[in-house]
Design goal:
It is a single chain. About 20% of the residues lie in helices and about 25% in strands. The strands form 3 sheets. Strands 8-13-9-10-11-12 form a 6-stranded antiparallel β-sheet, with helices on both faces. It is of the alpha+beta class.
Length: about 240
């Protein structure tokens, strides 16, 4: 368990240790803990970021800024959740996987999404811990369950994958939707023109469902098909770089 005095001492000494989550934790978009941006399942590691100069070297408020190690994703952690952290025994070391190794794990990725869909669930913005996911959270967690890491957000996942023609889609490829400028939704291709995704209440299914990638589907499928940007293939497991230098 990490205490505020222990953390204060570490940060004041210019040390940025890694901590391991002993339970699932939430990360927020602001120090006021407004807006869930992601979640970290027990076992993930994070680093506490340096204190801003205006804090005069002291932890203030109700949250501390952290960055998850596996995907370099930042967020604000409630100070009351420090007791859910333990100092990590060693620094996070990503595992490099070959394209062939990743392809061998695709059935496991697909199976994860089907299992997640079979449980009662709803769409949760920022959700990466079951049963409730957002679109990119489901993709990241499904691949992570197979030992493959993706970046957190859909536009990051699009940039990370190898673009692939829609005519040669394979099961396990990611399909991206959004505006001409940026992806804001992602699903997992299952084969035969179907994909699985977690979609919101506004134009989706408020949870995990399967839709068809064509103009012949139902209203939900059509609403996303009109926003189709393209597809990408996962060829690597994400390798984070050191943001703290």
């Amino acid at each position: 368990m990490v205490s505020i005095p222990q953390l204060q001492t570490t940060l004041s000494a210019g040390q940025f240790l890694e901590y391991q989550c002993q339970a699932n934790v939430n990360l927020y978009s602001s120090p006021k803990l407004e807006g869930l941006v992601t979640q970290a399942v027990a076992g993930r590691q994070l680093r506490v970021l340096p204190l801003p100069p205006e804090n005069e070297g002291k932890i203030q408020g109700v949250a501390i800024q952290v960055r998850l190690c596996e995907d370099n994703y930042p967020g604000w952690l409630a100070l009351e959740d420090l007791d859910l952290l333990e100092e990590a025994e060693s620094a996070y070391q990503p595992i490099a996987l070959s394209e062939a190794e990743i392809r061998d794990r695709i059935p496991q990725v697909i199976a994860f999404t089907h299992t997640a869909m079979a449980q009662p669930n709803r769409y949760l913005w920022g959700g990466t811990v079951g049963p409730n996911y957002d679109c990119s959270g489901l993709m990241q967690t499904a691949f992570a369950a197979a030992g493959v890491w993706l970046p957190r957000d859909s536009y990051q996942q699009e940039a990370f994958t190898q673009p692939v023609s829609l005519e040669i889609l394979e099961p396990g490829d990611l399909v991206f939707f959004g505006t001409p400028d940026r992806a804001n939704h992602v699903g997992l291709h299952l084969g035969d023109g179907y994909y699985i995704h977690s979609s919101g209440r506004d134009k989706g299914r408020n949870g995990i469902g399967i839709d068809v990638l064509s103009d012949q589907g139902d209203e939900v499928s059509l609403s996303y098909y009109r926003l189709l940007r393209g597809a990408g293939r996962v060829l690597h497991s994400y390798q984070p770089h050191d943001e703290l230098g």
